[in-house]
Amino acid sequence: MINAMQITTLAHTVYKKCECCNRVKDIFFKLSIKDAKTSSFLVGDFDLCKTCGQNFGDILNIPVSTDNVLTDFKFSKT
Fold first, then answer.
1. Torsion angles phi and psi, residue 63, rounded to 5
2. What is the average per-residue pLDDT within 51-59?
3. 14-54 confidence digits (pLDDT tens)
4. What is the pTM of this model?
5. Which end of the chain is more exposed for a tag (fewer CB within 10 A), N or C?
6. How far apart are CA 54 and CA 28, in angstroms?
7. SS3 50
């Protein structure tokens, strides 16, 4: 079975609108949608918040994790 949808966890969160729930939140995931026949051409993608990304992972039976996502930033002179 060819998997045409892939969820990628971002290394750093981005604060913008989730393309699923339309709320402005930290974006944790990117859902990439590829061509259904070949699964090699990128057709489009969605930026997803933590809740929506985990929900899509459950629906598509794709394991998702936010363990290694950097959400805290510290600006200090060294």
1. -70, 130
2. 92
3. 899 999 999 999 999 999 999 988 888 999 999 999 999 99
4. 0.77
5. C
6. 10
7. helix
